Inverse folding.
């Protein structure tokens, strides 16, 4: 019997989420995709948008807060770091 690492469990949850993992994975993907599509569509980083940027930050902060609850096999620390890195990529310069 092989023992899976936390990384194996996390990666499996990202590919085939179950239970509480489902909305967290979908929200993570939505936040990431929204930032990418915004820049592709409008030609400027989401962090420079004075209307949509603050709304995205609110959602990202909410996502981070949800990581404190039930999350199944997902690694909260990794997702927290990744959403903060996404904020930097999307042109935000304030702390989330």
């Amino acid at each position: 019997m092989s023992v899976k690492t936390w990384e194996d469990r996390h990666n499996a949850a990202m590919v085939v989420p179950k239970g509480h993992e489902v909305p967290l994975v979908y929200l993570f993907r939505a936040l990431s995709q929204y930032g990418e599509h915004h820049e592709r569509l409008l030609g400027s980083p989401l962090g420079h948008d004075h209307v949509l940027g603050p709304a995205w930050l609110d959602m990202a902060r909410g996502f981070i807060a949800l990581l404190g609850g039930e999350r199944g096999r997902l690694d909260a620390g990794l997702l927290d770091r990744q959403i903060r890195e996404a904020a930097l990529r999307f042109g935000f310069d304030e702390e989330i």
